[in-house]
Each structure stands twice: as C-alpha cells, then as structure tokens.
From TrEMBL:
Residues passing through the membrane, by range: none
InterPro entries, A to Z: DNA_brk_join_enz, Integrase-like_cat_sf, Integrase_catalytic
UniProt xrefs under PROSITE patterns: TYR_RECOMBINASE (PS51898)
Pfam family name, one: Phage_integrase
The protein's name: Tyrosine-type recombinase/integrase
Domain of life: Bacteria
Residues covered by the Tyr recombinase domain: 1-84
Keywords, ordered alphabetically: DNA recombination
C-alpha cells in the first residue's frame, strides 16, 4: 500500500479491525468511536484530570470532553468524598 502515512479507513477495517474482532470472538458491532468513548469514560471514572483526557482525545476545548462526564454515575459521591477528605485533613492540622 502506497500512502503518505495515513492509513485509509477501509483498508484498516478490512485488514486490521475486522480480523481482530474475529480473532477475539467478538460478534457484535463495535465501532472505533465506541472504544474512544469507553477510553474517555474509564479515564474519568478513574479520576483522571479532565484536561488530561481532553488532550488525549485531541479536543480543542473542554466543552467537547465534558460530554463524557454523563457516564459517571457516582460523580456526586466522589465529589463529596473529596470534600470530606479535604475537610478532615484541615481538622487534623495543628496550625
């Protein structure tokens, strides 16, 4: 394949993506975007910084990355726990 470094989508699907799904025994339709969305969601669920996720996805603004925040069912709980950790840490100080 003669290319400028860019792998054509159809070539990638036929020679890389579909054989990989077959080898893994995956029969349901999975798009590359599904993997991208999962990657972002898992990073955020693991408490990765949203700015870091934005950079990994190549988004020019945080607004584009914010759409992945809806997947964080426990985000309120995480926020409250973070607040509690800071609050408790402050009470432990002997200034």
């Amino acid at each position: 394949m003669d290319t400028d470094g860019h792998i054509p989508r159809n070539w990638h699907l036929k020679h890389i993506w579909k054989p990989a799904l077959t080898a893994a025994g995956i029969t349901r339709r999975i798009r590359m975007h599904d993997l991208r969305h999962t990657h972002a969601s898992w990073l955020l669920a693991g408490r990765a910084d949203i700015q870091t996720v934005r950079e990994r996805l190549g988004h020019s603004s945080l607004r584009a990355t914010e759409r992945y925040l809806h997947t964080l069912a426990a985000s309120d709980e995480h926020a409250l726990k973070a607040f509690e950790r800071v609050r408790n840490h402050r009470h432990l100080r002997t200034d």
